[in-house]
Structure formats: C-alpha cells, structure tokens
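This section describes the prediction task in plain terms. A model, or a person checking by hand, is given the sequence of a single protein chain and must write out its three-dimensional structure as a string of tokens. No templates, partner chains or ligands are provided. The sample shown here is typical of the held-out split.
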Amino acid sequence: MRTISIRSLGILVFAFFWCVACTDHEPQQPQVVLPVVKTGASTFNSQTQTPTFHVQIESLGNVGITEYGIAYLLAPNGSNPANYNPTVSGPKVIFDLPATVGNHSKPAPFTDQQVDVYHYRAYAILQNGNVVYGEKFADD
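The expected answer:
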C-alpha cells in the first residue's frame, strides 16, 4: 500500500481550499446612489418681466453630475399639461458647474409676456449618461 507524504497531503489540501475560495466569491459592484434634485417654484422678476427658475440639489450621490438645470416647454393657454413633458432633449436652461448641494437660480430665456404657459422641471445629467428629473411644474 502506498502512503501519501505529509507534503503531498498539504499540497492537496491547499489546492482544494484555493479552488473553493476562488469560485465562491464574486467581487461586489459599488451601489449606485443617484443625486436628488428638486424643482423649485419659479419666481417673477417684475423689472425684467422674466421668470427665474430654481433648482434644489439635496444630495450629490456617487455618480458625477456633468450638467444640471431646468428643462422647459412653452405651451398655449388651455393646453393639456399631460402633453407637455420637458426633457433634456428639448429647450433647457443650463446652470453653472460644479453642482453643489443647495439652492441654485437662473433667469428664464423668455419674458412672461412672450408665453402663455410654461412647463418646467429640474434635471441632472450624470456621468453614466442617465438623467435624474425633479417634479414637473407649470406657470403662466
């Protein structure tokens, strides 16, 4: 009968545990935490006759923000608000980078006299290409 040396047994035990350990564990991907952006109600500047848009960034998350601001659509009075969903592919007001936690404001590129109703919402474009939106508002 053949005997297994202690050295050979040690190598076999090591190889077994090495194989089991390598196949049992997958590296975990970091959890994506999205930024939180909120749309503030627009205010009106009576001197310039323009609305001012407001974005509140509550948290930055762990995916970088490459652009943020307000997406808006202009609509005639009496139009159905469900038909107006502002997105980053349409008109927008881009705010200055870097994005920081807090309140940010910028005037609209139109006067209140030029439009009947405007629909708007805050947005943030992320480094991974995704877009995060805030709540939609409409003013006249």
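For orientation: Residues 21 and 82 are 55 Å apart (CA to CA).
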